[in-house]
Amino acid sequence: MSDLSHGIGENAAAVNSLRSAVMRLSRRLKHQRVDESLSPTEMSVLGTLARCGSATPGELARKEHVQPPSMTRIVALLEAKGLVRLEPHPDDRRQKVVSQTVEAEAMLEESRRKRNAWLASLAEGLDEDEWAKLRAAAPVLEKLAHL
């Protein structure tokens, strides 16, 4: 629940500011890509596999908020590019399990490195008080991202 000591208007203004800043920063971060041949959705699927481990296409579709037929196409594209492999499901032979390849892991690591370097260069303009606020806000933003 929100802190009742803050006015509703203050909270609404903070939410609006957060939304706007996160969207602008996200757009700018998306331009810091290592492999321009991958769509943002394909990169997102690889990121989900990196975070959560192997999954069925149906599980990936739920996590990525897309329809299963769309995920089947995305997985096929990633497989053709050598970034994922499909293996039989250990308990249900009708299903497949999607796993990322070593090439995908390397590409994601390079992407993280590039994006972190870009963000670090932006953050060089922050003063110590702003850095302290950023360090305090990071876990809260992380929590919001996973709710």
List the helices and strands and how they pair.
Layout: H1 8-30, H2 40-52, H3 57-64, H4 68-80, E1 84-88, E2 96-100, H5 102-123, H6 128-145
Antiparallel strand pairs: 1-2
Major sheet, described briefly?
2 strands, antiparallel
* Run of helices and strands: HHHHEEHH
CA-CA gap between termini:
14 Å
Instruction: List the total number of helices.
Output: 6
Strand order of the largest sheet: 1-2
Q: Give Rg in angstroms.
A: 19 Å
List unreliable stretches of 5+ residues.
none
| Strand residues, percent | 5-15%
Basic shape: globular
Mean pLDDT: 89
Structural class: mainly alpha
| Total beta strand runs | 2
Specify the helix fraction band: 55-70%
What would you say this structure looks like, in words?
- This protein is mainly alpha-helical and 147 residues long.
- The chain is 66% helix and 7% strand.
- It is built from 6 helices and 2 strands, in the order H-H-H-H-E-E-H-H.
- It has a two-stranded antiparallel sheet.
- The longest helix is centred in the N-terminal third of the chain and has 23 residues, at 8-30.
